[in-house]
Design a protein that fits this description.
Elements lengths: L17 H7 L16 H10 L23 E6 L3 E10 L3 E6 L9 E6 L4 E2 L20 H13 L4 E4 L2 E5 L11 H7 L11 H15 L3 E6 L6 H15 L4 H22 E2 L7 E2 L2 E8 L5 E9 L17 H9 L2 H7 L9 H4 L11 H17 L5 H18 L3 E4 L11 E2 L2 E2 L2 E2 L23 E3 L4 H11 L3 H9 E5 L5 E5 L2 H31 L14 E7 L11 H31 L13 H22 L7 H16 L7 E2 L5 H6 L8 E6 L2 E6 L3 H4 L6 H8 L4 H4 L16 H17 L2 E8 L12 H10 L2 H7 L6 E4 H8 L12 H11 L7 E3 L3 E4 L3 H11 L5 H66 L6 H6 L5 E2 L20 H9 L1 E6 L4 E6 L9 H5 L9 H10 L2 E6 L4 E6 L2 H4 L11 E7 L7 E3 L12 E6 L6 E6 L4 E6 L12 E7 L5 E8 L6 H4 L4 E9 L2 E10 L2 E10 L18 E11 L5 E8 L4 E10 ...
Parallel strand pairs: 7-24, 8-20, 8-24, 28-46, 29-43
Antiparallel strand pairs: 1-2, 1-5, 2-3, 3-4, 6-7, 9-10, 11-12, 11-20, 13-14, 13-17, 15-16, 18-19, 21-22, 22-23, 25-27, 26-27, 30-31, 31-32, 32-33, 33-34, 35-36, 36-37, 37-38, 39-40, 40-41, 41-42, 43-44, 44-45, 45-46, 47-48, 48-49, 49-50, 49-51, 52-53, 53-54, 54-55, 56-57, 57-58
Helix pairs in contact: 1-28, 3-24, 5-6, 6-7, 7-8, 7-11, 7-15, 8-11, 12-13, 12-15, 16-23, 17-18, 26-27, 27-29
Length: 1490
């Protein structure tokens, strides 16, 4: 906090004191990488106490200003040879300095020069012997000082340096005794990062300890250019991990042996000699080591990326092919090599020596070295490959060498001008052009549409090579030669046509075969290594999720060569993505530290690599397009096709775009004059993070081809060699596609790699090459500086300009600096004490800040603190007094502010309490008054005054709307009761009805609003009909949402949370319980909270819930009735596992009807309610009641805080041929009636009631919801006015029948007539208009389907041809069907298309989604679950599962994951999931096999 006007003066140190000079020399323009760990004050203090500030360096930083220097200051200035060198400022100009440069190696090279201000770096003299283990401990942290510190340490054989938690490694090009010994392993074990000198062991140990503590996968990203030592560093880290893992000695030894033996194999087949590195990895690899929860190494695996397969057929000058070729020639038995493989160890081969590599000389040191390497290779391969398979590998490698020797010559029309059928070789500069393997051009020709004579043939000198290649590959020579010379085309309806290839096409086919066979051989080796390294892991299927891994990524770094081609573009794209990932990870880690400490630090500006990445991916997309057209013969071959591709890139990505990272070529005037400059259509430039790179596009279309022609795939598939036959890809024996391109696979591998890294905690090691000559002890400053810039270290330093690289614990600092202040300051807290120290000694407040537990310092400020400690000077008493006064005033202001807040809170709380009490009192009075009015009306209705007999006879019955089956009638309200026989009337008046609900268990599904994704607002605000929601966004929303399962058992309401991740991502462990958790008991009528099971206090009592229903229009609204006959309408909010105290429900309305018992309830849709109700946001609720033995339906309107009874209708029960049960107390006889369902149809216009009379007939009643002209709501019974029959009653007339279940489905889209059968259920015909589709299940195992048409004028028609019994039912006869369950789809993403078509927010759609009209499930009491699907000939069923009898008491389909059927298992008392999609897949696979 600033001291303000009354701040005390700061203590001044003498101008000559080193601390004063250091304080004046502090800078804030360039800062370091922030450390994710705490710098050890004690470890850094020793170095700080010996540092000597440069008295010649008088750089000063005004508060909040930019750095500037004065005359005589010593600074770093740029140098093309040394990177940076020390200079002295002679004079200062407006935007530059004139400096005097010193060159100790060449004094004559010194002199004065002018440099820009932004090129100058501050210099601080630490002494000739002082170096820093961590760059962040230096006074100045910039590229010049980092380079100088790395150089000093390198010359002292300290090749490792930290920059925060990033390890920088410089290749020493020599052995360092004791650096990687067993003793070193013990020294670094269980040591914190920074407590020991920098070493890869420390990074590996940190990853191992994080793995055990956090149970999170770790990754070591090792990057650097070729020759920087990445591969060796990866070996060091993996060696350490195998040593420290808690693995059994025998098992660990086997795993270590496999890991160690895999390195020589991968180096031989994947490494090559380049101009900068004799053992350069030409592929990226990700080594994974899997550990169990206790840290034991279980098995290992390797994933490879981006093999440079083009190197097999072409190398740059001075480079070699992959090592395995030369090692095989030098190491194989001479007899086997010459007689079987037909190779000469000292011979010249184009694949091996085309780049200028020398031949092997028997007995030479090079040949002996290659022979030793081959012995190591064969020994290592013995771990993974049998001796018999060794020969197959060598034969395949030899076959590639022979195939590379094949040359082609044109038939006629050659360079010599010969015609006719004479064969003339293609010539260049007077010599025979053997193939493009030597880089010579070929002639341009056009492929003919039909067959024809060959245009090229195999040169006679190459026939033996072709024969030997075919023999070693195990294929026919004629077939191979034909594939090289002719292109096979299959025309539909015609025979196969053989089109002759041009010379260029023949060579391209030859190169493609060699490249792809070698790449597949490499993949086969990696696959074999992984299979063997997994060991017993294959026997532990399903346990991989319990293992955590540490991966080591070894991938080549940024490349900028003299000629950059397609390979460099791919490599640099990977480095762009990795660099962006690196910066984001480090920044996020630093930002988390600041947030934990409560610092208000502005978020750092983040460089955006996305335009570069998108630009390169666009280039690759254009390249894929041209490659596909070239593979289909739609464009010309050769350089012209590459130029067309480059022109396409310029046209789409460069022209008219100023800020595009893809740029046109910059013409060099000298090269243009000499004729060596590239043309505009031969390349382009890309602005990378490490600088601009020029790419030459010649040959890119050919390099992008990664598919063999189908005829070659067929040849490989027919090979008599098992290894070659196993490399054939039968899926590629068709036409080529963009998926076969190198760029397409490359982008897929890169995305897979980054997805793996994002799931890991990443640690970084940056490797540097000290010189280009591979010399030990030589450090080229400019060479290392370029790598420091390219790896992003300097860029990261610039990003962290406003950060605090040094941080120390306040408690430790107080112990060390306690002597600087008097003893009475001990009463202050640690933060206040250190603030007093910083204020007392005039340390700029811009250079430090206080956190909750740490003091954060800019670069170099720790030196100031250490110098203060050495000085130990006292502080004037007047200054101490003013500091005490400053803290006292601040404390007083804090107390006053807290008192004001407390007073405001008390005042506001008092007002809120009064307001709440008044509101509750008003509601109570309102409810009381309305209840008393309702009670008086009800008493008058129940016990009216006795009327005269004539009045009783004239009392009308409830109105009914008739319907005939199949006649069409209009509703009529007769003035008198329906005619009944005298005996029936007497029985009806004397018999009481007792309702028995068949099943009190119910299950509902509702969205969990507490756990909806925050980006759901995007759907509501940015919805555009022209831009449908993407599948990825919907999948993300579905994955991150949850829903609640509510189960009512007749007494309590229990909820569970369903998380769809296990089903959407396919991470199932136990499919029955996956995704279900957080089971709670819901108090819906009192507190509205959901309590975890077994956590409810004993004294807490909740009323029993007797019935429950859900609003179909809004699935979050429910209605319940308790044992006190209290009805409540409430809204489900959801549950939050992180905050259990959140309310789960919100009460909307309530009422107390006053009847004997409420049996069932259902909501009425807003579409059938009068406007007087909907305008006030009222809800219609129909209740099935009992009063004095009479069954009644009451319709009530529920408002916020009130309710209104709309109408009451009596329900008559048919008692024909039923003997009621006499009561012992002499009261009326009682007849038991089963009520199985009470709900509205899908059209919402009809209210259905169904069940059966015990021992009698089935009950089915339909009531139409009507609104008259006065907007009065009423229920009208639907029946035939003449026969008094209810709809579908003719189908349900069997004695003893009971309708046990009902399902209302939306109307199907297609209708057709079923077979001519009396009670059949086929697919009815398409009928326009509105209708309801009802499906019933009875107590005898039969299913019925009925179609009730809604006609004009309020009439109805039950269509008998579209109604009746299901003709295909596999339920057990005589066993009741207790559940009919509708579903919302058959796959987990079935509803995505509906969301896209509706353009509704996902959460809104899920609350209103309708049932599927093509699928439903039926569950019998014996546990048989059937799936019914709608087909053209009717409904078909299949048995999905068979549950235990009476275990499953309630089921419901999930709306969030439509293929999941949630059930409640009574036996185990648990919720379970049933994945119907998996059962359907299993049935389909069985049916397909049959």
């Amino acid at each position: 906090a600033a001291l303000g006007e009354g701040s005390p003066p700061r203590a001044r140190l003498p101008e000559s004191h080193p601390t004063r000079r250091a304080m004046d020399g502090r800078h804030s323009d360039v800062l370091g990488v922030p450390s994710s760990r705490v710098s050890d004050v004690h470890g850094i203090s020793d170095g700080l106490s010996t540092a000597r500030p440069s008295f010649a360096s008088g750089a000063r930083t005004p508060r909040g200003g930019a750095m500037h220097f004065e005359e005589g200051d010593v600074v770093w200035t740029p140098s093309t040879k040394h990177g940076f060198r020390t200079s002295t400022i002679v004079s200062i100009q407006n935007d530059s300095y004139i400096v005097e440069t010193r060159d100790d190696e060449n004094p004559a090279a010194g002199g004065q020069s002018t440099v820009r201000r932004d090129e100058v770096r501050p210099f601080f003299d630490y002494g000739p012997e002082k170096t820093w283990a961590d760059n962040t401990a230096m006074v100045h942290l910039d590229d010049a000082n980092i380079l100088d510190n790395i150089r000093r340490r390198y010359h002292r054989d300290e090749i490792y340096t930290y920059t925060a938690n990033v390890l920088l490694a410089v290749n020493p090009y020599k052995s360092l005794p004791g650096m990687y010994s067993q003793e070193k392993v013990g020294e670094y074990r269980n040591k914190s990062l920074g407590s020991m000198p920098p070493h890869p062991y420390s990074i590996a140990d940190t990853a191992y300890r994080h793995l055990l503590r956090q149970r999170q996968n770790q990754a070591l990203v090792i990057s650097g250019e070729s020759g920087a030592g990445k591969t060796e560093t990866a070996k060091v880290t993996m060696h350490y991990l195998t040593q420290v893992s808690r693995t059994d000695a025998a098992v660990g030894g086997q795993i270590q042996e496999r890991i160690i033996n895999s390195n020589p194999i991968l180096e031989s087949f994947g490494n090559a000699s380049t101009v900068r590195n004799q053992n350069s990895s030409r592929f990226g690899k990700y080594n994974e080591m899997f550990f169990n929860p206790v840290g034991s190494l279980m098995y290992a695996g390797i994933r490879t990326y981006l093999l440079e397969s083009s190197r097999v057929v072409q190398q740059q000058q001075g480079e070699r092919n992959f090592h395995v070729f030369y090692e095989m020639l030098a190491g194989l038995n001479e007899e086997y090599l010459e007689e079987t493989l037909q190779l000469d160890a000292s011979g010249y081969y184009r694949l091996l020596h085309g780049g200028g590599a020398p031949r092997l000389v028997p007995g030479s040191p090079e040949a002996l070295r290659e022979k030793r390497k081959f012995e190591e290779l064969t020994k290592a391969m013995g771990t993974f490959v049998s001796p018999e398979e060794h020969k197959e590998f060598w034969e395949l490698v030899a076959a590639l060498i022979h195939l590379g020797e094949v040359q082609f010559m044109e038939i006629g029309g050659g360079a010599s001008g010969g015609g006719g059928g004479d064969c003339t070789p293609v010539r260049q500069h007077g010599s025979i052009s053997m193939s493009p393997l030597e880089g010579s051009p070929t002639s341009q020709a056009t492929t003919e549409a039909g067959g024809g004579d060959a245009k090229v043939q195999v040169h006679p000198d190459s026939t033996d090579s072709l024969t030997q290649a075919a023999f070693l590959l195990g294929i026919l020579q004629g077939g191979l030669e034909q594939a090289l010379i002719y292109k096979e085309m299959n025309v539909k309806g015609r025979s196969t046509i053989f089109c002759p290839r041009t010379h260029q096409q023949a060579v391209q086919t030859q190169q493609s075969i060699i490249k792809i066979l070698y790449k597949r051989l490499f993949d086969k080796i990696v696959e074999r290594i992984n299979e063997t390294s997994a060991g017993k892991a294959d026997m532990c299927a399903g346990q991989e999720s319990r293992y955590s891994s540490i991966g080591t990524l070894d991938i080549y770094g940024f490349e900028r060569l003299g000629t950059n081609s397609f390979e460099q573009l791919c490599i640099n794209l990977a480095n762009e993505r990795l660099q962006q990932f690196f910066i984001e990870e480090v920044l996020e880690a630093e930002q988390r530290v600041y947030e934990e400490e409560g610092l208000r630090i502005q978020r750092f500006p983040l460089p955006n690599n996305q335009p570069v990445v998108v630009g390169i991916q666009s280039v690759m997309g254009i390249l894929d397009e041209h490659s596909l057209r070239s593979s289909r013969g739609l464009v010309r071959e050769g350089a012209e096709a590459d130029m067309k591709f480059c022109e396409h890139v310029h046209r789409n990505l460069i022209e008219g775009r100023r800020e595009s990272p893809i740029m046109s070529l910059r013409m060099n005037a000298k090269a243009a004059r000499e004729g060596t400059a590239m043309k505009a259509n031969e390349g382009f430039q890309v602005r990378h993070y490490a600088g601009d790179v020029t790419y030459q596009t010649k040959g890119w279309i050919d390099k992008n081809n990664d598919a063999l022609v189908p005829e070659v795939e067929s040849l490989l598939d027919d090979s008599n060699r098992a290894l070659v036959r196993g490399m054939a890809d039968r899926n590629r024996m068709q036409a080529a596609s963009t998926k076969d391109s190198v760029s397409h696979k490359y982008l897929g591998n890169l995305n897979e790699l980054l997805a793996t890294l994002k799931q890991c905690s990443v640690h970084y090691i940056r490797c540097f090459n000290p010189n280009d000559n591979k010399e030990a002890g030589t450090f080229f400053n400019q060479c290392v500086l370029e790598q420091v810039i390219q790896c992003g270290t300097v860029e990261l330093v610039k990003i962290m300009h406003h950060g605090f690289p040094n941080r120390c614990f306040l408690k430790d600092l107080r112990e060390r600096f306690a002597s600087l202040l008097p003893p009475d300051f001990e009463r202050y807290k640690d933060g206040e004490f250190m603030e007093a120290v910083m204020l007392a000694f005039e340390i700029d407040q811009c250079e430090w800040t206080l956190g909750n537990r740490r003091l954060f310092l800019k670069a170099g400020q720790l030196l100031v603190l250490e110098s203060l400690l050495e000085q130990g000077g006292g502080v004037p008493q007047d200054l101490l007094r003013r500091i005490r006064l400053h803290f006292a005033k601040r404390k007083l202001r804090s107390i006053v502010a807290k008192a004001k807040v407390l007073r405001m809170w008390l005042r506001s709380n008092r007002k809120n309490r009064v307001r709440t009490l008044v509101t509750h009192l008003s509601k109570a009075i309102f409810i009381y008054v309305r209840s008393m009015r309702w009670l008086a009306k009800t008493r008058a209705r129940i016990s009216p005054p006795q009327p005269e007999a004539a009045a009783v006879a004239a009392a009308p019955e409830p109105e009914v709307a008739p319907v005939a089956v199949p006649a069409v009638v209009a509703p009529v309200a007769p003035p008198s009761p329906p005619p009944r026989c005298q005996e029936e009337l007497e029985l009806f008046n004397l018999t009481a009805v007792r309702v028995i609900k068949q099943s009190t268990q119910q299950m509902f599904v509702a969205c969990n609003t507490w756990e909806q994704p925050a980006y759901s607002n995007f759907f509501a605000s940015d919805m555009d009909m022209r831009k449908p929601i993407g599948d990825t966004t919907l999948k993300m929303w579905q994955r991150d949402s949850t829903e609640n399962i509510l189960y009512h058992d007749g007494k309590d309401v229990v909820c569970a949370r369903l998380d769809p991740k296990a089903f959407v991502l396919g991470e199932l462990t136990d499919p029955r319980t996956a995704g279900l958790d957080d089971v709670r008991l819901v108090d819906v009528h009192m507190s509205g909270q959901a309590f975890p099971l077994n956590s409810l206090p004993r004294e807490y009592e909740m009323p029993a819930i007797t019935c429950m229903c859900q609003d179909r229009a809004n699935r979050r609204d429910f209605a319940t009735c308790d044992d006190n006959k209290m009805v409540s309408v409430w809204r489900w909010l959801g549950t939050d596992a992180a905050e259990p105290q959140k309310f789960a429900t919100k009460v909307v309305s309530g009422c107390l009807p006053g009847f004997d018992e409420i049996h069932a309830m259902c909501f009425l849709s807003e579409d059938v309610l009068p406007r007087r109700i909907t305008d006030k946001s009222g809800k219609g609720l129909a209740m099935l009641l009992s009063q004095n033995g009479q069954l009644t339906i009451m319709v009530c309107t529920m408002y916020q805080g009130s309710h209104h009874i709309e109408c009451i209708v009596a329900v008559d029960v048919p008692l024909d041929d039923v003997v009621p049960v006499a009561q012992s107390d002499g009261s009326r006889p009682v007849q038991d009636v089963e009520i199985c369902f009470f709900t509205t149809t899908h059209s919402e216009r009809l209210l259905t009631l169904g069940g059966g009379v015990v021992g009698g007939h089935a009950i089915f009643r339909l009531f139409e919801v009507q609104v008259d002209a006065q907007e009065n709501l009423r229920l009208v019974l639907v029946e035939d006015p003449e026969t008094k029959e209810q709809p579908i009653e003719c189908f349900l007339g069997t004695p003893g029948l009971c309708i046990t279940s009902l399902l209302n489905l939306p109307k199907p889209n297609l209708w057709s007539l079923g077979p001519d059968e009396e009670h059949c259920f086929g697919l009815p015909r398409r009928i326009p208009g509105e209708y309801d589709w009802l499906i019933f299940g009875d107590n005898k195992g039969t299913l019925y389907g009925f179609k009730l048409n809604h006609l004009d004028g309020g009439r109805y028609e039950a269509e008998d041809r579209a109604s009746g019994r299901f003709r295909r039912s596999t339920h057990t006869e005589g066993v009741a069907i207790k559940h009919l369950v509708g579903c919302y789809g058959e796959e987990h993403n079935s509803h995505h298309k509906e969301v896209q078509r509706s353009c509704l927010p996902y959460s809104v759609f899920m609350n209103k989604v309708a049932l599927s009209n093509k699928t439903f499930y039926s569950l019998g009491e014996d546990g048989i679950l059937l799936t019914w699907n709608l087909h053209s000939d009717g409904w078909r069923c299949s048995s999905n599962s068979h549950f235990q009898r009476e275990d499953v008491v309630s089921t419901h389909c999930s709306r969030l994951v439509p293929n999941i059927l949630v059930r409640y298992d009574k036996a185990s008392g648990s919720f379970q999931c049933h994945d119907t999609a998996k059962n359907r897949q299993a049935r389909n696979s069985v049916a397909g096999g049959a």
